[in-house]
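Hi R.,

Here's the input for the A4P complex you asked about:
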Amino acid sequence: MTARSVRVYIGLGSNLGDRLGHLREAVARLARTPGLAVTRTSRVYETAPVGPPQPDYLNAVVEVITALDPKSVLELAQRIEDEMGRERGERWGPRVIDIDVLLHGTARIDEPGLTVPHPRMHERAFVLVPLLELEADPVLPGGRSLGDVRLEAIGRSDVRLFAPALPIPPGATGSNARPRAGNDRRVGRARATEGERC
Ligand code: A4P
Ligand code: MG
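And here is the predicted structure with A4P in place:
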């Protein structure tokens, strides 16, 4: 990774089919991307759906180090969604995989098709709970800090621990970014399957 590399947090969600398998597949595809190293993942949470009635989600957050700009990361996320069979139906509707760009370093972007920090992340326990495992003081939309957000008020109880951190396969670039303390590469080797909970 280059001197211009930044830490990027990516949110994963799935509520159709083999949900855990889909999260793992998304991490594997990210890890295979040249110029991007997956360094850590959060644990996996089962979460009540926000939006229309639909099955519960599995959600997790992935930390990557990359010099790719935010637009390129979004394009990558959408390409992986498409390759994994994501069909775009109703807004906030059920999906095989959702890949959101939550944070890109300290960037604040508001352009058509791309808003970073992700505009609703501070309202959503299914994003904040896994993100806080990886980043204690995240940049939030509108210049908010974590002290401005009350997890209880946004439905913390709808987020239940489901599985250990996701496995991180060897990357295309060797994933040479050094993991920080508590890196989940090791934890992530645990073999959880759908139905096998923490
Ligand atoms: N877009 C703009 N900024 C971003 C960004 N930072 N990351 C645009 C990703 N996409 C971004 O996204 C719609 C448009 O957002 C894209 O064209 C992109 O250019 P989408 O993934 O096609 O549709 P969506 O996900 O249904 O819409 P939206 O508004 O992004 O929904 P959210 O906020 O992602 O919510 N409940 C639980 N428990 N867990 C979930 O994961 N997810 C959603 C989707 C609803 N309820 C959920 C969950
Ligand atoms: Mg999305």
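One thing worth noting: Strands lie at 6-14, 36-41, 44-47, 57-66, 98-104, 109-111, 114-116, 159-163.

Cheers,
M.
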